[in-house]
């Protein structure tokens, strides 16, 4: 019988590429991960890994098993959701991930809504960049997360993760009538590696130039404060632009940011996740979008 916990490690190895990366993700030692994968090979009865020095690659049989592992783990998520529904109303811990703007604007009223409707739930929030959400969901560090997608940035695809669209909001440029008009300005963007940073760079490239980035700041309130101080121009979403500082002009652009709820595939019918998404939607209906 194949152990689902070992299948999870094999799937993570297929995605992350090294045993060290898998160990870091699941808070095991590399030695423990290696031992578990070796035990999985014995259970499977065929070689799953090719070891060359310090590198490890999946064999053809390993790739086949990863495909089946995803189906097995998805079915286990469905079973867990069904059992939770059978126990009654949602209760217990609910680990929520969210990007900074959502943490500040959307989550406080959503958590109040959730507490009123389901007092047995204990939400625990972690601020996280959407680029890191898939790994955190797969590792079980989060149950549900708010993520976003931008124009110019293709969505990250992960077959083990499902998403449910929540809302779309326009993007604004500070103090210039168009992105092209900001060609010679200093720019304020989010930190490299974030979706927000990639979106800003590609928006400028689509306008025919590489931006001169002076500041890297993730919090949009701080970005707007820097803009008010004459430190550069920036792209900001509607949720971050509802109360700009005095003197900051905002131009609506034909660009958008879309927010989605993300969760492990097969787990969308879990009552706690359904309750969270319902609370998100109630809050969103009251936002100035």
Automatic annotation (TrEMBL):
One of its GO terms (molecular function) is DNA binding. InterPro entries: ArsR-like_HTH (IPR011991), LysR_HTH_N (IPR000847), LysR_subst-bd (IPR005119), WH-like_DNA-bd_sf (IPR036388), WH_DNA-bd_sf (IPR036390). Gene3D superfamilies: Periplasmic binding protein-like II, Winged helix-like DNA-binding domain superfamily/Winged helix DNA-binding domain. Transmembrane segments: none annotated. The keyword Translocase does not apply. Pfam families: HTH_1 (PF00126), LysR_substrate (PF03466). Keywords: DNA-binding, Transcription, Transcription regulation. It comes from the Bacteria. GO terms for cellular component: protein-DNA complex. Residues 2-59 form the HTH lysR-type domain. Belongs to the LysR transcriptional regulatory family. This is DNA-binding transcriptional regulator, LysR family. The lineage of its organism: Bacteria, Bacillati, Actinomycetota, Actinomycetes, Streptosporangiales.
């Amino acid at each position: 019988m194949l152990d689902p916990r070992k299948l999870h490690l094999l799937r993570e190895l297929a995605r992350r590429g090294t045993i060290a990366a898998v160990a870091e993700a699941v808070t095991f030692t590399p030695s423990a991960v290696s031992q578990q994968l070796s035990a999985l090979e014995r259970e499977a009865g065929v070689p799953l890994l090719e070891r060359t020095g310090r590198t490890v690659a999946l064999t053809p049989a390993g790739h086949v098993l990863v495909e089946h592992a995803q189906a097995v783990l998805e079915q286990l998520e469905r079973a867990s959701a069904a059992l939770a529904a059978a126990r009654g109303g949602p209760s217990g811990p609910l680990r929520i991930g969210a990007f900074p703007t959502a943490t500040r604007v959307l989550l406080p009223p959503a958590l109040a809504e959730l507490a009123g409707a389901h007092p047995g739930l204990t939400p625990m929030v972690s601020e996280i960049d959407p680029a890191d959400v898939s790994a955190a969901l797969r590792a079980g560090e989060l149950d549900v997360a708010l993520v976003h997608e931008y124009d110019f940035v293709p969505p990250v695809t992960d077959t083990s993760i499902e998403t449910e669209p929540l809302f779309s909001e326009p993007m604004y440029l500070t103090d210039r009538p168009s992105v092209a008009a900001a060609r010679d300005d200093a720019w304020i963007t989010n930190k490299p590696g974030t979706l927000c940073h990639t979106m800003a760079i590609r928006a400028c490239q689509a306008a025919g130039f590489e931006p001169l980035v002076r500041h890297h700041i993730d919090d949009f309130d701080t970005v707007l404060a820097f803009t008010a101080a004459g430190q550069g121009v920036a792209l900001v979403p509607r949720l971050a632009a509802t109360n700009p500082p005095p003197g900051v002009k905002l131009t609506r652009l034909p660009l958008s940011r879309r927010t989605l709820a993300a969760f492990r595939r097969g787990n969308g019918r879990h009552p706690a996740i359904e309750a969270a998404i319902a609370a998100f939607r109630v809050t969103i209906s009251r936002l100035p979008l």
